[in-house]
User: What shape does this take?
Amino acid sequence: MKEIVLDAKVENLPQLLSIIDEELEKAECSMKGQMQIDVAVEEIFVNVASYAYEDKSGSCTIEVDTDPANSYVTITFIDEGIPYNPLAKEDPDVTLSAEEREIGGLGIFIVKKSMDKTSYERKDGKNIFSMGYSWA
Amino acid sequence: MTINKVANGKDLIISLAGRLDTTTAPQLDDELKGSLAGVEKLEFDFSKLEYISSAGLRVLLSAQKVMNKQGSMVIKNVSEEINEIFEVTGFVDILTIE
Assistant: This one.
C-alpha cells in the first residue's frame, strides 16, 4: 500500500494524480479505469482542500491499495477537518435541461456512479472516505 | 491544457488539448467569457482532450447556456472515456456531441 500525505491544497492535485497514476500503471489498470479513478480522486481531494479546514490549513492522507491479481484498487482519503460526509449529498437531477441544471453537485455524483464501492465514516475526529474500483 | 481558437465571422472553433480539470477549467472559463460575444456557432474540438472532471463540465454547461440564447454549440471528436463521463452525468442529453 502506498501512503501519500499532502497539504490539503488544490495546487497539490497534479502531484497527487501523478503518484496515483504511477501506482495504477504498476498494477496494469486500464486507461479507462485510470481516468475514472483520476476524476474521482480529483473530486474528493478538491472537496477536502476546499472545505475540510475552512480558512485554516491541514493535511490529507491518501492511501492507495492496489490489488493487481484481482484488478482492484481501494483509495482512502483521511482528513482531520470538520465532519463531512460527501455521500450524504443529494444526487442532482441528471434529466433536467441545460437551463434547469445547477452548476454544482456533479462531482460526488460522478464518484458514486463510476466507483464500484464508496464508504464514509467519522472516527477519532477524522473523516475517512474510501472508494473501490475494479477494472476487470 | 492548451486552448486553440479559430474565429471566422460568427463561427468560433475552440480546440482543447490536455486536461480540463480543477486547475485548468478557470482558464477556459476566462477564455470563453472574453470571446463568446457575437458568436452564433461555437464548436469544440476534443480530439486532443485527454481528461475532464466536474470542474470542466461546469464550464461546458455555462457555455451551453450562453449559446442556447445566441446560437448553437457542438462538441466534436469526443473520446470514449470522456463520453462515458458525459453519459454518467446526463450531459449527453444537454450537449450536442457529434
